Fold this sequence. Notes:
20% strand, alpha+beta, flat, 10-stranded antiparallel β-sheet, 8 helices
Amino acid sequence: xxxxxxxxxxxxxxxLVLLWMMLCTLAxxxxxxxxxxxxxxxxxxxxxxxxxxxxxxxTPVFRVNVLARTTKAVNYRHRGGSTTVxxxxxxxxxxxxxxxxxxxxxxxxAISVEVTHLRPARSFGAQYLTYVLWAITPEGRAVNxxxxxxxxxxxxxxxxxxxxQAFGLIVTVEPYYSVTHPxxxxxxxxxxxxxxxxxxxxxxTRFDVLEGNQYTIDMPADRLPSTQADSRVxxxxxxxxxxxxxxKAAGAxxxxxxxxxxxxxxxxxxxxxxxxxxxxxxIGTAARGATQMAEDARVLTLRRKEQERLAAERRANQxxxxxxxxxxxxxxxxxxxxxxxxxxxxxxxxxxxxxxAEAQARQAASLAAQxxxxxxxxxxxxxxxxxDRQKLEAERATQEAERARLEAVQQKDEAIQQKEQxxxxxxxxxxxxxxxxxxxxxxxxxxxxxxxxxxxxxxKPAARERLARVSGIVLAYPDxxxxxxxxxxxxxSEEYNLTLSEKRAAAVRDYLVSSGVTIDNVxxxxxxxxxxxADNSSAAGRKLNRRVEMIVSGDVIGSKIGxxxxxxxxxxxxxxxxxxxxxx
Length: 584
């Protein structure tokens, strides 16, 4: 019974695998299928809009966004006479004003526009040269009504006609006059007067716009011909130069060479007119023709690029679908083979399971006995290993403790030896400059009164020289502490002697600090006539008592060393050799 159930399960698993592979194939075909075509707007003979961040190898004809503005569309009365709407500047140019007079004629609407306070278009970027008036239908179709050319005062007038009946009016800044889509830089829009005649559409105008840098996506704005042109070149010719350059950068030489050649021919004609000073009218006529031809070439180029992209997508989708179908057929064949193999394996497993069950029944008893014996042997072995491991760990711990103790003793001895060597070296160096002795307080450097003038605390030049050498030695030993103590003999008042000793100690301290010794490591104090080292009753004794001592200490040089390890403290140490008598 178990083998039959197992065989059925294997068969069902094979069918599930086949079904899963077919579903994956269907999902792959749906993911790679071309997207449904989008009906272009009436003014777009091109592919649907796409995200502005799409890679260049999949660039649609127009990189557009949908922009919603509060511009109201007006359904003007057919043959209903004239009416007026005003223009209002946007956040980009709030100072803009003006109005548009709309006159209903037979079969058309005549529009007379006046816009004021327009700044130069180039203030929005190097790619912008002019302004364009647009009519936007309530359904979002944009129609280029003409170029808005501001005069020196920023004022512009324009008379145009349109076959549209309901529309809103906006003004955008553009790279040239013949653009087919408004940019997203809207500088003015119409607002309705209370007396405006017509039916206001109940919805806001929504329409497709181009990002401001889309015309220069293939050519940086600072490389456009207009950025390097003479200021006297007419605007129409600047627009034509830029339009041809933009079309070339888009790839028109490959995809729309005929249209581009016509644009180049018209541009060359305009350039020739300019060189021969033929006047604004012939130059403008040829230049505007070149601009229009260049825009046609650019749009045709983008359209053909889009067609190539769609064709490549269709080929890729077809290849993916064919591969998916081949993979599905191969999967079906593999599933059938797997099913046959599964049936054979199930039969063999059933026979093997029967034989195995009989063998297991015979081995059950002996296996239980073997397992019990093995468990007892394993327990004994584990106990022995635990005992050995504990013994080894105890021995290792003892060895490690002894090694750590020896290392600590060795490190302590080495540190003491290093400090003793450093102290002895410092003692020898200081003794080469001034008499220095080793005491329990530290190394005591004796500075006799010969370092100062009589009854003064100003250092003599010889004293400065010696102290400079002392500071050079001390700076080589970081973290040393220096205590400067001034002493006098017993002649004079207590207050006077104390003040003089303080000033002399301070003079030594200040000189050491000026020589680079850290001020935090130096202190000075005056002890007056206390702690004499000789008898004040004689001139020689008083001379020895008039002194400044510098006690050099610090952990860096350790405890006292040397032959005078048992010497008395610095304030009562052995006096230096007598010197010639000198007054205080």
